[in-house]
Amino acid sequence: MLIYYLRYPQYAIIKIEGHIEGFELDKFRQPFQELALLGCQTIILNFEKINYISSSILGYLIEEWRRKAEKGGKVVVCCLTPKVANLFEITHLFSIIDVYETEEEAIEAIKKG
Fold first, then answer.
1. Where does the record place the STAS domain (predicted)?
2. Which end of the chain, C or N, has fewer beta carbons within 10 A?
3. Please, are residues 42 and 74 in contact by the beta-carbon 8 Å criterion?
4. Domains of the chain with bracketed CATH
């Protein structure tokens, strides 16, 4: 798994490539923790290059979504691959986390509030 982020004044974009396995949870958490220390409470997760997400990663994603919401922030997701979209459907994450077709749509939604 490759993970990195881009920081902007109103939000950050976390980009991830590959499989996100449960044993990589600490690596997945790292950008969230770094961004929290920088005061960033709004995050866009770009899943364009993701093939698989483990249940422990999904659990952390929900936890992070709740943490950001409590502080007035957001976690949104964009660019789901068909496999990951199916997983979001099965786990009902579409009813919890805002999902956008493109990164540009996610950015516009964040800017609008």
1. 1-110
2. C
3. yes
4. 2-112 (3.30.750.24)
Question: Mean pLDDT across the stretch 71-84?
Answer: 95
pLDDT at 77: 97
- Smallest CA-to-CA distance from 19 within 113, 94, 112, 87 is with 87
In the numeric block, the tokens 């516009």 are attached to: 108
Cβ neighbors of 95 (< 8 A, separation 6 or more) are: none
* 43 within 8 A of 75, measured Cβ to Cβ: yes
Strands, sheet with 99-100, edge to edge from the N-terminal-most edge strand: 2-7, 12-20, 42-53, 74-78, 99-100
Cα angle 80-36-47, degrees, rounded to a multiple of 5: 10
Contact 18, 53 (CB under 8 A): no
Question: What sign does the dihedral 4-95-86-66 (CA atoms) show?
Answer: positive
What pLDDT score does 113 carry? 78
Three-state DSSP state, 37: helix
pLDDT above 90 for 95: yes
